[in-house]
Amino acid sequence: MSMDAPALLRSLRHRNYRLFFTGQLISLIGTWMDTVAEAWLVYRLSHSPLLLGVAAFASQIPVFLLAPIGGLIADRYDRRKILIWTQALSMVQAMALAILTLTHVVTIWHVILLAAGLGIVNAIDMPTRQAFVVDMVSREDLMNAIALNSSMFNGARVIGPAVAGLVVAAIGEGWCFFANSVSYLAVIAGLWMMTTARSVNPSSPQVASVWSQIKEGFGFVMHEKPVRALLSLLAVVSLFGMSYSVLMPVFADQILHAGPRGLGLLMGSAGIGALCGAISLALKREVKGLGRWIMLGASGFGVALIVFGQSRMTWLSCLVLLGAGYAMMVQMSSSNTLIQSMVPNRLRGRVMALYTATFMGMAPVGALVSGTLAQHIGAPYTVAIGGGACIVAGALFGMVLPSLRPHARRLIVAQQAEAAAPTQP
């Protein structure tokens, strides 16, 4: 690795992380193509904001309900092998949706049922992926790896929607689903080529009951104030703010009259902003100051949503979504980094499952509520209300931030000591 770019790309000096990064980047482009195409397909079949919300609810509610079990699986079994299985199942789901769409037999209920199936897979996949990062890089590179993961995710978020908008307009949604299915081969190949120690935590007794081990993760979150505060803020932003993306087809079609290409532009703009936010965090070498970034990110995201809701020009909407994406990523990725810096490794899968459940679990409820609300008061006012809630939540977090710092410092020091301790033979 050249010494010219260690600050931004230092995690890529680890071979396993390079394999993961490359495979995930290809796969995530397919995932974002699928996301845009699926939203447009649901809207084309139903012309209903409510059913957009129902489809999003179906894909995300299994994560909320099952992620704690997924986190326990991530702590008990080899994370690399778990991910190979979950990615293979996701590939099958995407191919099924592609076949149904390309043969012109797809219905809204096919989409919803397949979305729910993918949600069950994601309940295991997402906490495992979060916990797997520390198995691929050294602890001093953890913050950079998390930020690079976010950069990768949002780089794909720029490319995928733009390509999907063109493909959907030219030849239909089915080929986006097919491309997504094929793209999973890249990440499966990367995982297969890795050489990692079996990431099972020996301190987590196999004989203990599943419920008692899940409760241990809950207990850590509830007892430690900084983790509890971060997840509470994340829950509010996910519930009220993140549902704006569910209503994107409504904005593209009814508000901005921009069609599927416009939908790709809107989602790509948010992705560019989020990519810039992730790169900013990747350049940061320490967790000091992240609490302030989180507060400003949540509040800034809320302001951007209010402005976006009132915009009637595509170029202005895209510009505002750049800011929304940046602010959202600063808050989400900083929260992820801080939590991973504070959690003991034996609880990592379970705590990151709660992070996933909070992020993904509140979103489906928000999607259902926003879809229903948009049906009655319109998408612009619905998004503006969500933005206001994010501003209030960010301000409240800022008020308690000084009292959280000593507790956060204690947890971070404890985890640094754990990492420095010699491993048992």
- Give the end-to-end Cα distance, rounded to a whole number of Å: 31 Å
**Looking at this structure, what is the CATH superfamily?**
MFS general substrate transporter like domains
Number of domains: 1
Q: Could you tell me the number of beta strands?
A: 0
The name of the CATH architecture is Up-down Bundle
Strand content bin: under 5%
How many helical elements? 15
Low-confidence stretches: 1-5
The CATH topology is given as Growth Hormone, Chain: A
Task: Walk me through the topology.
Blueprint: H1 6-9, H2 15-46, H3 49-76, H4 79-102, H5 108-136, H6 142-171, H7 174-193, H8 210-223, H9 225-241, H10 248-255, H11 259-282, H12 290-310, H13 314-342, H14 348-377, H15 379-420
Concise synopsis of the structure shown:
The chain is an all-alpha fold and 425 residues long.
Structure report:
With 425 residues, the chain is mainly α. The protein is globular, with a radius of gyration of 20 Å. It contains 15 helices and no strands. The longest helix has 42 residues. It has a single domain, classed as Growth Hormone, Chain: A (Up-down Bundle), CATH 1.20.1250.20. The chain starts with 5 loop residues before the first helix and ends in a 5-residue tail after the last helix.
Question: Descriptors for this entry?
Answer:
425 residues, mainly alpha, Growth Hormone, Chain: A, 15 helices, 83% helix, disordered N terminus
